[in-house]
Specification:
Strand order of the largest sheet: 3-5-1-12-9-10-11-20
Radius of gyration: 26 Å
Bound molecules: ligand MTE, hypoxanthine, dioxothiomolybdenum(VI) ion
Number of strands: 26
Helix content: 25-40%
Number of helices: 19
Shape: globular
Structural class: alpha+beta
Distance between the termini: 46 Å
Length: 733
């Protein structure tokens, strides 16, 4: 299937926010960021900037008509700093001018004096000082202390996982046009149109119906626009309303990298107990999340970390605790996997440590402990329809993993300059927002009298292909050709109170709503079709309309049978789990520390795919993004909390040369899935965690050189760190 947008995108004709022809008289806003990570504002003089050439206005906290507050879950984040600044990049003002160039020039004229404090950058230090965003939480099952005491083998250690910059190709931005009665129309590059609408209404002090948010498509979001697009939409809205002129704010790459939050860095301590046969008996883990300077989505992300603490495995006794630690960094935020990858990495590091201690392969421990139907997750949910073992067995068999292992060992015995490594990664990822309330979607379907169809939902297209999938669902439910269906851009005036397109649920939930609405129309058309054998769809639609039968339908879908009690950490928060397993092979250059990812082979359960080409793209893209997080992408801050890697020359992202030489993906035979339209399954996030296979394959290769190398517990494992490990230096932090 060819995505409807593909030709437009390939020819550069698809419009993104910055391509939209701006309305007459449009002005341009540029934020004024704090250069200091922590301190008290002692002087903020905007006079010189306001008087600069082509500048029309400079706005600060005092200019906000409603509340100067953009925190969506916890109200702890001012739009513009008032007395304190808590991270580099926190905005103190917005300069608005006739051109973005003039605004940027005037930013330098803002006179800002801050009495600096020593910033806290390490989440463990923040935790020690009681600097928490919210209370720490625990999810527990069984009796961990007793089980650890009785375990034949116990391994313990510390893990540190790095953050990750989203590098969506389209940076953050918004275009605000004032409307009647102090309202505003917004074009926003957001995953959460209703989230932007709600917060902008709060900031302007107007009802939500006076804020309309429209989204055509995003040049990537990856979680980075689930919450943080709001900031720039709110700034543009404030200026637009104040000046009664359209205002556009679009960040440059460097600004975007410095100002916005990233994947949360985590530090963790673990203890894993096993019996003599390699069955896990107990797991005790403590996560320190570097939340950044404000809550943003940190508490929700922390929740998913806890729910994925045991990865794809069954452990009868678990205690997982996690603390959201306030650090002086831009608020960290959603990023593909949403706290799950950080948890799964720790579990795999623990398994690797146990395997070494027991003298067995990590694969043996992985395989022994995979979760099966009837077992329970630590939060009490019973495993149902879990295909972890199916995928693991299939990938091992199809790619003859024993033979692969033998060949790699032979290579390593006979080569000194290069060593090869192998590792597996089973993924089992919970589908649904962990906040049950968010698991709802609605759709509005119109059939026009010529038989063409328009579909509106809250889903935001960000490259993941949700529009194509919704089109396929509508066409199938109505029994029309794909070409008859158009999926509209997202607008809060057409679809209200929508959840963000996130948690991999976009196609699932919006697809179900589209199916319901389309089926309702089809049922109304059925009598007209029955009376007109051989009539075309347009003829049937016109006949129904002539008889004054509605050709439009709205439907609302709420994911059934899910619940979660946050207070006690128990429930069935997920509709289902998506499973798969990857095998990675790498070759290490022992002299240089450089490496090549030879192959990643995956068996993945995508259900009855709505579009196999899109799903293949999601698996490949997710994998490579995961590889970047684990191996390549290194965020460095100086001790003053300033990001040093704030451009794509210093922050290395995966390219074609880095990508695996071979990526083989096989989709498992589909089974039933009542939660996805036509038994499809969510696919957006789970593949990212396949990257963990390559990380441990690399550790395996390093150990072939130096069995005692101190590696395997911190990310990213860059070539530089590999070289140091080969030289016998400690690379565990
Ligand atoms: N794929 C592309 N090309 N661009 C993106 O921004 N975001 C990912 C994933 N795949 C993303 C992507 C994330 S973080 C999520 S949650 C899902 O897509 C969201 O879309 P879906 O729910 O429709 O799968
Ligand atoms: N996943 C992704 N995004 C979210 C979630 C979640 O569970 N909850 C709130 N936003
Ligand atoms: Mo995805 S991190 O849930 O936007």
């Amino acid at each position: 299937m060819i995505r409807r947008d593909d030709h437009l995108l390939a020819r550069g004709e698809a419009a993104f926010l910055d391509d939209i022809t701006v309305p007459a008289g449009c002005l341009f806003g540029v934020p004024v960021p704090s250069p200091v990570a922590a301190g008290e504002i002692v002087r903020l003089e905007i006079g010189a900037a306001a008087a600069a050439h082509d500048v029309v206005g400079v706005f600060t906290a005092a200019d906000v008509p409603g509340e100067n507050q953009i925190g969506a879950i916890i109200p702890d984040e001012p739009l513009f700093a008032e007395r304190e600044v808590d991270c580099v990049g926190q905005c103190v003002a917005l300069v608005v001018a006739r051109s973005a160039e003039a605004a940027r020039a005037a930013v330098k004229l803002v006179d800002l004096e801050i009495r600096e404090r020593e910033p806290v950058l390490d989440p463990r230090v923040a935790h020690g000082r009681g600097m928490l965003i919210a209370q720490q939480r625990t999810v527990a099952l069984g009796d961990v202390d007793a089980a650890l005491a009785a375990s034949a083998v116990v391994v313990e250690g510390r893990c540190d996982t790095g953050g990750q910059e989203h590098v969506y190709l389209e940076t953050q931005g918004a275009l605000a046009t004032p409307t009647e009665r102090g309202g505003v129309h917004l074009r926003s590059s957001t995953q959460s149109p209703s989230g932007v609408q709600r917060i902008v209404a709060r900031v302007l002090g107007v009802p939500m119906h006076d804020v309309e948010v429209e989204v055509l498509r995003l040049g990537g979001g990856f979680g980075g626009k689930e919450d943080q697009a709001t900031t720039y939409a709110a700034m543009a809205a404030v200026a637009a309303v104040r000046l009664a002129r359209p205002v556009k704010v679009v960040l440059r790459r460097g600004e975007d990298m410095r100002l916005t939050g990233k994947r949360h860095p985590y530090s963790a301590d673990f203890r894993l107990g096993l019996d003599a046969g390699g069955a896990m008996t107990a797991y005790d883990v403590m996560f320190y999340q570097s939340s950044g300077a404000a809550a943003d989505l940190s508490t929700a992300i922390l929740e998913r970390t806890l729910l994925h603490a045991t990865g794809s495995y069954f452990v009868p006794n678990v205690r997982a605790t996690a603390a959201p630690c306030r650090t002086n960094l831009p608020p960290n935020t959603a990023f593909r996997g949403f706290g799950g990858p950080q948890a799964m990495f720790v579990m795999e590091a623990a398994i690797a440590a146990a395997a070494r201690k027991m003298g067995v392969s990590p694969r043996a421990i992985q395989e022994r402990n995979l979760i099966e139907d009837g077992r329970r997750f630590p939060y009490g949910m019973e495993a149902r329809g879990i295909r972890a073992r199916r995928c693991f067995a299939a990938v091992c068999e199809e790619h003859r993993v024993d033979e692969l292992r033998r060949r790699i060992d032979e290579h390593n015995d006979s080569h000194r300059e290069t060593k090869r490594g192998l590792a597996l990664m089973p993924v089992c990822f919970g589908i649904s927002f962990t906040n049950t309330m968010l698991n709802q979607a609605s759709a509005l379907v119109h059939v026009y009298v010529d038989g063409s169809v328009g579909v509106s939902t809250g889903a935001v297209e960000m490259g993941q292909g949700v529009r194509s999938k919704l089109r396929a669902v509508a066409a199938r439910a109505l029994g029309v050709a794909l070409d008859a269906v158009k999926v509209e851009g997202t607008s809060t005036a057409r679809t209200a109170n929508v959840s963000p397109t996130a948690a991999s649920t976009g196609a699932d939930m919006n697809g179900q709503a589209v199916r319901m609405a389309a089926e309702a129309i089809r049922a109304r058309l059925a009598p007209f079709a029955a009376e007109r054998p051989g009539a075309s769809f347009p003829e049937i639609a016109a006949a129904a309309h002539a008889a004054r039968v509605s050709l439009s339908a709205h439907a609302h879908y709420a994911t059934p049978d899910i619940h979660f009690d946050r207070e006690v950490g128990r429930g069935a928060p997920f509709a289902y789990h998506v499973c798969g397993t990857a095998i990675a092979e790498v070759t290490l250059d022992c002299l240089r520390g450089t490496y090549r990812i030879d192959a990643v082979r995956i068996v993945h359960d995508a259900g009855q795919s709505l579009d196999p080409a899109i799903d293949l793209g999601q698996v490949e893209g997710g994998l490579v993004q995961g590889l970047g997080w684990l191996l390549l992408e290194e965020l460095l801050w100086n001790d003053k909390g300033r990001l040093l890697t704030d451009s794509l020359t210093t922050y290395k992202v995966p390219d074609l040369d880095f990508a695996p030489r071979e990526i083989a993906v096989r989709f498992l035979e589909a089974d039933e899935n009542r939660f996805g339209p036509y038994s499809s399954k969510a696919i957006g996030e789970p593949p990212l965690m396949y990257g963990i296979a390559a990380y441990f394959a690399l550790v395996d290769a390093i150990r072939a050189v130096r069995p005692d190398a101190r590696v395997g517990t911190s990310t990213p494992l860059t070539p530089e760190k590999v070289l140091m490990a080969l030289a016998g230096r400690d690379q565990t932090r």
